[in-house]
Amino acid sequence: MWSRRAFLFFQRIRSAAQFAAADARRVSTTGPSISFSGSKSYGQFNYGSAWRKHPWDFMLGIMLSGPVAIYLSFSRNPVSAQDVSEADLVTENDEAQAYVTGLRRIEDGSVISNSHTSRWRIFTDHGRDLFLKGKLDEAEKYFQSAVHEAKEGFGTRDPHVASSYNNLAELYRVSKAFEKAEPLYLEAISILEESFGADDIRVGAALHNLGQFYLAQRKLEQARTCYERALKIKGRVLGHGHTDYANTMYHLGTVLHLLGKEKDSMALIQESISILEENGLGESTTCVRRMRYLSQGWDSLETVLAAERLALTLQANGSLLEAQELLERCLVARKEILPPAHVQVAANMLHLARIAMLNSKQLWKMKSSKAKSELEKAKLLIDNSIRMAKAVLDHPTKNRNSLQSNNAHTDIEKDQHVALIILLQSLDAVGLLEVTKHEILETKFPEDIQEACEFPSEAELALRECVSIFKEPHTRRMLLNASDVTAEYLSCLKHLTSLLGESTDESKLRVLQELKYELQHIEAELTPRRQRN
């Protein structure tokens, strides 16, 4: 599931700061390691919204009003393995309308209407409003009255009675009156099974609520049983790509984590995140919170990848400090798990370099002298990223222990693919670093600007490295056969070529013109192939 997201490319924009923020998302380092040979050595460079937690949030398992009985259950916040709080066990009313469309309903004509049912609707609505305002004592009275009116108006085994039981049970769960809540949950499920069958979606929603109830009390085996059954029902009725299916899957994953079943737990949580992403919710608060939860452990690459994805989301939202801290932890973990020159380590360093450049821009605007040190940090990280990517490309066998396996050749090709993209993005970052450096040095450190403008420029050195990549048979073949690598290469050429300066020195001018001419030929050869792909 994670390997199919090996590359995440985002459109670039002109502003250096914005470009860096968008650029940070273009690669998710899920690939192994890679190869390259015959390339010239790239010289050392001469470069000297915040995480938002939900506020107090209560859960409404179901609120029925009007003549239609519908059972709903949504969980807005993830369950923390360390602290299962009420805020982490709430349901999500925002999605209720979309969810309702997939449920079976009781037709208007089949619903009894009398004075009791009218009062039931009024009491339910008032109880709901008070519940959402946190006035639990007052809400309890209305919910109790709604139970009574539902029994009198619809009959003691009617689904409306089940919904009223559930509302009151949820209130007791939130107020931690667990001994009162459990029999109400169980009776609600019994009525729903009797009315609609054991596999009805409303039964699945009720089981999810009961699972939350047990999880809050650390009754893990009971919670697991409820979530597993609810997941089966939701998968059958809603489909395996539905966000509410993913919600129950996530909660089951947290239960398995608490039971010590780490592998199964991580698989479920990762899959729940993937479903949200596939539904366009990859940057939603719910998805970010789940990625944060997944990043709490650091003993596997899957966890590190989840933490990295969260860091890039935080970076895009402007939370640079949190993103930097998370990426630094990823780097430490990768160095412990992977060989020291693995391509994932190189990519991690590239992400950190981009954040360092963004930090330098912010510090520059604040007129801080630390802006220059952030540039130097970014320079060192890019140097190392380029060195590692090239080392992996030069020696594809060094970082692999499975060359005798049937899949060894395919693994190496995947490694090479990732490494070449990391190398191209690192070279591209050289140009961005040069732009950022000039902007800062011009105003803050004018005494260093002459050194920064030495010939040849860093952009020219990076461009020559790009030319070398194109001339090398092995990487040239990859450029011609992989559309994403071709696009990355052309983008890199475009950005770096735009940074080439002019010179009044005849010999220097001739060198630049020859380089531009060569680049034009490369672009002319690659562009039609990219368009065909």
From TrEMBL:
Keyword tags: TPR repeat
Gene3D superfamilies: Tetratricopeptide repeat domain (1.25.40.10)
InterPro entries: TPR-like_helical_dom_sf, TPR_rpt
PROSITE patterns: TPR
Keyword Magnesium attributed: no
TPR repeats: 204-237
Coiled coil residues, start to end: none
Recorded superkingdom: Eukaryota
Pfam families the UniProt entry points to: TPR_10, TPR_12
Protein name listed in UniProt: Uncharacterized protein LOC105041106 isoform X3
